[in-house]
Specification:
By secondary structure, this protein is an all-beta fold. The protein is 0% helix and 46% strand.
Length: 127
């Protein structure tokens, strides 16, 4: 079992930045692909970004490309999401997830591919 804990959420004005961090409880996390998802009130949880275990490959949803950057530090067992130029529509609870497979694949865009989840951190962007 791997436990994931997110941090870094908060309230920010539109155009601002936040950096989310996900800390894992076990070293095996460094061998897993990881992703960030988000869920706004009344909506389905949706894919935001994913990164391979090596950090060499990343995927993004179209609406965050050029604004968000996913990265990882395997020595620290962490995966971060740098969010710039935030918009009110980015408001959601953000979840970190881990896929026991090391490489990204077509399923990396979908919740069902992930084996472990954090509890989420709230991001609120005011207009």
């Amino acid at each position: 079992q791997v436990q994931l804990v997110e941090s870094g959420g908060g309230l920010v004005q539109a155009g601002g930045s936040l950096r989310l961090s996900c800390a894992a409880s076990r070293r095996t996390f460094s061998t897993y692909a990881s992703g960030w998802f988000r869920q706004a009130p009344g909506k389905e949880r949706e894919f935001v970004a994913a990164i391979s275990s090596s950090g060499g490959t990343s995927y993004y949803r179209d609406s965050v490309k050029g604004r968000f950057t996913i990265s990882r530090d395997n020595a620290k067992n962490t995966v971060d999401l740098q969010m710039n130029s935030l918009k009110p529509e980015d408001t959601a609870v953000y979840y970190c997830a881990a896929d026991q497979r090391p490489r990204l694949h077509r399923g990396s865009y979908y919740r069902a591919s992930y084996d472990y989840w954090g509890q989420g951190t709230q991001v609120t962007v005011s207009s």
